[in-house]
Design brief:
This protein has 3 domains: about 10-140 and about 150-195, no CATH class; about 240-325, Orthogonal Bundle (Helix Hairpins), CATH 1.10.287; about 330-470, Histidine kinase-like ATPase, C-terminal domain (Heat Shock Protein 90). Helices cover about 50% and strands about 15% of the residues. The protein has 11 helices and 11 strands.
């Protein structure tokens, strides 16, 4: 999937942290909802008791005394008014907070006291105390209030953004008058619980760090196993893995070490077989060559010697192919620039032209003789079938790329992979006269693989064949 980390550590860490964040968000939402309901239970009960107490007191007073009392009590966060008309609500509000507050009021006032309730953040807020200085005069009637076009003050706008509730209650007094209460829950009570959110954040960060450490501990053995497998291709006698850790890790390390031991035994057995085969082949060929020298018929003698030369060349090429994947040669730091220049001088001494573009910034750790044989085979192929060779070097911190291009006819696209097969020859371009046995590219690719690299062939868009040798650093 696109967007996902490529490593197992990154994916596990992403899934774990994503699950933790989701769980924390759901937990915070549930906690905040429970806190919100608890606050409305507590604050709603207090507001209902205060409203009922004021209503019962106003029922016992004359209109002028009522106005004085309302003027004295009309202070934030509870605003009281006697001049707003009774407006029947058409659609009942069945939200949780409205139902809760209506039940609290009805319990406090009793079933015979008519009242109506609205809980809405979008209700117009009451004017602040600074806008009603004339109300403080008990002999002057309060001016009529028009809240329809009033914009909310800053503190009220901020409270609305925080989701604070605006309670508006209208109650009928005993003589038919209407008293209106508007209650805004204080911001410091309904605001986000910073301490609770901080605790959740600390818990999330702590668990995420522990999850990262646990994932790193579990995935590190896989990284060690992958590195050991990559090193095994370059050095079969690499030190075995430590069989420690959890059971599954110990079993994987033991299986890897067992595989390495079997490979070493196989290579040693093959080396002994190659040594015996080389001796057994060279001895009869040498005897046949000596006997051919004793022939009196010159044309027949020439045919015998030619066939023996072919046999010796094919036997030597086969042995070289079988030895090409061996790693007995010690690894050393090699100056690739000097190696390529020596190949260039050898080619020029035989009348061929070889050009080199680019340079290697630092020595490459490899098996010198094997790598020289690989490059020699590639350059020889380019000179035999393309008359000249152009070498391009591209050095990177993690990989060295050597491109060898000729100016020959190239190879059909369907044959680009088959030419690496042992003894496979393109009849249109190779013959015994050229000395080809069909093993040069196979040997070169085996040497590249033994170094942990790769060898590929491409037809150049203009002309010729390109051999691309990539070696890791």
């Amino acid at each position: 999937m696109r967007g996902l980390p490529q490593s197992l550590f990154g994916r596990l860490l992403l899934f774990l942290t994503g699950g933790l964040v989701l769980a924390q968000l759901l937990s915070a939402a549930i906690l905040l909802q429970d806190r919100d309901q608890s606050l409305y239970h507590a604050i709603g009960g207090y507001v209902a008791q205060r409203i009922v107490a004021i209503v019962n007191l106003l029922d016992t007073l004359e209109p002028q005394e009522r106005q004085r009392l309302v003027t004295a009590l009309d202070l934030p966060p509870t605003r009281i008014s006697l001049d707003l008309p009774w407006e029947d609500r058409i659609e009942p509000d069945e939200r949780y907070h409205t139902t809760l507050f209506r039940a609290l009021l009805k319990r406090q006032m009793g079933p015979d006291r008519p009242f109506q309730l609205e809980v809405n953040d979008e209700l117009p807020p009451p004017p602040p105390p600074a806008e009603r200085p004339s109300w403080l005069n008990p002999n002057e009637a309060p001016p009529p209030r028009d809240w329809s076009n009033r914009s909310p003050p800053r503190w009220r706008r901020h409270a609305m953004m925080m989701g604070l509730r605006n309670f508006v209650v209208q109650v009928r007094l005993g003589d038919g008058a209407t008293v209106t209460f508007q209650q805004v829950l204080p911001e410091e009570v309904i605001a986000w619980p910073t301490r609770l959110l901080l605790i959740l954040l600390v818990l999330l960060v702590s668990v995420a760090i522990l999850a990262a450490l646990a994932v790193r501990t579990l995935t590190r053995p896989l990284a060690v196993l992958a590195d050991a497998a990559a090193d095994l291709g370059r050095d079969i006698r690499h030190p075995p893995l430590a069989e420690t850790g959890p059971l599954e890790v110990r079993r994987a390390a033991h299986a890897f070490n067992t595989m390495q031991e079997r490979l070493i035994r196989y290579i040693e057995d093959r080396n002994r077989m190659l040594a015996a085969l080389s001796h057994d082949l060279k001895t009869p060929i040498t005897r046949l060559r000596l006997r051919a020298e004793l022939l009196d018929d010159a044309p027949l003698q020439e045919k015998f010697l030619s066939d023996l030369d072919d046999m010796q060349r094919m036997a030597q090429a086969s042995l070289d192919f079988l030895r090409s994947g061996e790693d007995n040669e010690p690894i050393a730091a090699v100056d690739i620039n000097a190696l390529l220049e020596s190949l260039q001088e050898d080619a020029e001494d035989t009348g061929y032209e070889v050009s080199i573009v680019g340079a290697v910034s630092q020595p490459l750790r490899c098996r010198p003789l094997a790598l020289k044989r690989c490059l020699t085979n590639l350059v020889d192929n380019a000179l035999k079938y393309g008359q000249r060779a152009a070498i391009t070097v591209a050095d990177a911190p993690t990989r060295l790329t050597i491109l060898i291009r000729d100016e020959g006819p190239g190879i059909p696209a369907a044959e680009l992979d088959r030419v690496f097969e042992p003894f496979y020859r393109l009849e249109s371009s190779r013959s015994r006269d050229t000395g080809g046995t069909g093993l040069g590219l196979s040997i070169a690719r085996n040497i590249a693989h033994a170094h942990g690299g790769e060898l590929k062939l491409h037809n150049h868009p203009q002309s010729g064949l390109e051999a691309v040798l990539e070696l890791p650093r």
